[in-house]
Amino acid sequence: MKIRRFQAKDNSEALTMIRNALGEEAVILSSRTGDNGGIEVTAAVDFDHDEPEDSASTETFVRPATYRRPFPGKKADFSRLMDYRLGKKKEPQTPAPDVSTYRRRVIDAIQLAPLRPEKHHPMVIALVGPTGVGKTTTCAKIAAWFKINQGLDIALLSCDCYRIGATEQLRTYGRIMGIPCEVVVKPEKMAGAIDRHHHRDLVIIDTTGRSPYDREMIKELGLWLADDRIMPLLTMAATAKKEDIEATVGAYGILEPRGVALTKLDETRTYAVMCRYLAASGLPIACMGLGQRVPEDFHPGSREFLRDLFEKGMGDARKHLNHSRPNPGEARI
Questions:
Q1: Which of the 8 DSSP states describes residue 21?
Q2: pTM of the model
Q3: Ordered structural domains, the chain, with CATH
Q4: Residue 193 has pLDDT above 60, yes or no
């Protein structure tokens, strides 16, 4: 992130300066009356914006949790946000928090709804999302984790009929784990497949990856998930860029996902972009993946895990694996 201070004669001029220098995604951190009259405003923006030649020194930080973007993927009203931060709406003026404070605020603002299926309470979930984010592997991790840790009766369904080898990969996982795997070839066959496994504790559906920039294909995916018993989980890779995260959440919003399966946490050490966006969108984390091992590299949504991951690093976060249990006070998917 970049942090810059602006001196302006009034709110309007400050707004124009910030938009010109940092763009529409800038966030106002603080404002006060300038030493020589006018106002002094501190604003920030992601690093992926081009840095002006006359920019002041920068420091890394995470967007404050008070900045919240409505789900699904709609941008917040920038002018209203500016009005609030520039003093048109009353707000106690305080110094901008340091980097660690920002990080804690955002982590605390991320909503969690740990995936918690239970015996004799049938649950049907479907992993949806772009290609290459790890949906099939995550399906296998979820199945193995809940079978081993809770002894649940689980079935796997696949409607990924486009990708060569995808259904066979899931079948292989199923054979290894002793879990039935069924391929559904048409949208109208999905309800019948779910009916055949109505006695299971958990039914997991693997879907075809669809580009967030092809909304018609995502609408077509909605035909496969039309059954009201299905709860979609939006699968997103922690390595995704900000623009792609926004596009994915916005496009897949039509499927009304109940939470996020966050994958590939082991393939990056830069978590701030995803962390900020999830905090702003209000879309809760249901589960997380951080490697290829099934089911070892899996964790239900956990704030303790996130704090260790974002504040201390992957080594400390991995200590939670195989000891992970959702907090009873958190929401349940």
A1: H
A2: 0.68
A3: 2-89+97-109 (no CATH), 123-318 (3.40.50.300)
A4: yes
